[in-house]
Amino acid sequence: MRSPGQVSSSFATLVDERSRVGHAPIVSPPRNAASCREMARYARGVPEDLSRHIAFIGFMGAGKSTMAELTAQRLGRTWFDTDHVIVERCGRSIPELFASGEQDQFRAMEKQVIAELLVGEPAVLSLGGGALEDADTRTLLFERAFVVNLDVSWQEVQAELPTLMSTRPLLQNRTEDEIHELFLRRQATYNKAHVRIHAPRGDIEAAAEHVFSMLTVA
Ligand code: S3P
User: Fold this and answer.
1) In CA terms, which of 3, 18, 143, 215 is 20 to 30 Å from 103?
2) Which atom of ligand 1 is nearest to the CA of 169?
3) Residue 94 CB–ligand 1 contact under 6 Å
């Protein structure tokens, strides 16, 4: 029986478990020394790790909010979506902010909100896809959160482009090539995450369950 708050005894075992039951592992192993150390700390269950936030990053439309909400429910933590907090705080939608030329103010609020959330109670956060363009935010986030890149392929983004372009102001009036360029440019930051998860459309719940199992022990 898993109990929230306990940490995984073996990251590799969980990846193996998924293979054993006939699924391809959806969680990539840590890829650099820093993230190996991070996972090792989780595996050892060092108590201060439990005080860390869990933050989902990734490109627009990857499903970060859904993943974060489900993960928070399973861990019994509060979920904060940075876009939701900003909208609530300023009483205007993100398309409205961008349409009135207040993109810089949006970015400043985004930075401020993330900094505030990161000093609060350990929570599960979903970040806007552009939040990590800010260097201070990157530093703070990697210091204070266990960061999960919710990976999405360019083909998946392409399939969702009409919806994304009509709902994400940053993508309006951009060509597909420009969006692809933005997508590629951001991968370098997303790939710095401690762990990368690919959740195909319709499989978000299974992926959230996997994040939960990765952070808890049997
Ligand atoms: C943005 C992503 C959006 C939102 C804003 C800008 C970006 O959030 O913060 O429209 O720069 O990638 P989602 O990633 O949740 O769509």
Assistant:
1) 143
2) 10
3) yes
pLDDT digit string (tens) for 25-77?
Answer: 344 444 444 555 555 555 444 433 557 899 999 999 999 999 999 999 988 89
CATH code of the domain covering residue 67: 3.40.50.300
The pTM of this model reads 0.80
Give the span between the Cα atoms of 22 and 12, in whole angstroms: 16
Q: Which two tokens stand for residue 200?
A: 């195909």
Residue nearest to atom 10 of ligand 1 (CA): 168
58 Cα–ligand 1 center, Å = 9
- 168 CB near ligand 1 (under 6 Å): yes
Per-residue pLDDT tens over the stretch 16-31:
333 333 333 344 444 4
In a domain, 179, yes or no: yes
- 48 lies in some domain: yes
Structural domain span for residue 61: 11-215
DSSP state of 27: B
